[in-house]
Amino acid sequence: MRSAWLLVFMLACGSSSREAKPEPAKPEASIPEASNGRPSWTIPAGWRSEVIPFPLDFAPTIDHTGEEELRFPKGFFDPASLEYWSYTFLWRTTDAANLDAAALAAELTVYFQGLIAAVDEKKQVKDRDAIVARATANGARFELTAHVFDAFKTGQPIDLVGWAERHPCGSGAIWVFVLAPVQTSIRAQLDELATAAKTTCGRG
């Protein structure tokens, strides 16, 4: 069964006419995480969001408990947009999720291979082993690269760059991620959103 996030992606890909008039941002009170007594994570106007539980439908071998949250702009699916494939997400885990660079890269590789396989209905991506993420420790931050394919539309390769950080959250953790092509126009906004996500623990 496809996750709610994948259904949102598929709906957005097939609904370009709706993108011209984006839905209003959800009020914070309606965001699922806010009902759990912790600070909610901002959804910029016109952006999409989703919360999905672990284990992830498309990558069930990523061995965490908790949930993933995503924020992505309306231009995410548009190859002509400078927002193309630009997004931020977090893993709010109830397990400690202490990952070094090698473990983080392995989990992100499984994540993207599974995601792309799940949405590649036209079988555009022939070499899924070419989908690889890499992580390099840089102090408390991990610098990330990911070689992926746009299985939603073009089938063409895309190189993403960004970062990840782990923050303790009670007995669990919040992992915050930013990934986008080098030429994205919203790098600063993604970084700002990711920085805000660090404060959404709210659990003892």
Distinctive features:
204 residues; alpha+beta; seven-stranded antiparallel β-sheet; globular
Give an overview in words.
- This protein has 204 residues and is of the alpha+beta class.
- It has one domain (4-197).
- The protein has four helices and seven strands, in the order H-H-E-E-E-H-E-E-E-E-H.
- It has helices at 4-13, 16-19, 101-119, 187-197, and strands at residues 48-53, 66-72, 87-93, 132-138, 141-149, 157-169, 172-180.
- The protein has a seven-stranded antiparallel β-sheet with strand order 1-2-3-7-6-5-4, with helices on both faces.
- Strand 6 and strand 7 form a beta hairpin.
- The chain is globular and about 40 Å long.
As a whole number of angstroms, the C-alpha radius of gyration is 16 Å
User: Which band does the percent of strand residues land in?
Assistant: 25-35%
The tally of domains stands at 1
The topology string of helices and strands comes to HHEEEHEEEEH
Name the average pLDDT: 86
Q: Major sheet: order of its strands?
A: 1-2-3-7-6-5-4
What's the helical proportion of residues? 10-25%
- Basic shape: globular
Number of strands: 7
Major sheet: size, sense and barrel closure?
7 strands, antiparallel
- Coarse structural class: alpha+beta
- Please report the number of helical segments: 4
Q: Segments where pLDDT lies below 50 for 5+ residues?
A: 15-35
Euclidean distance between termini CA atoms: 33 Å
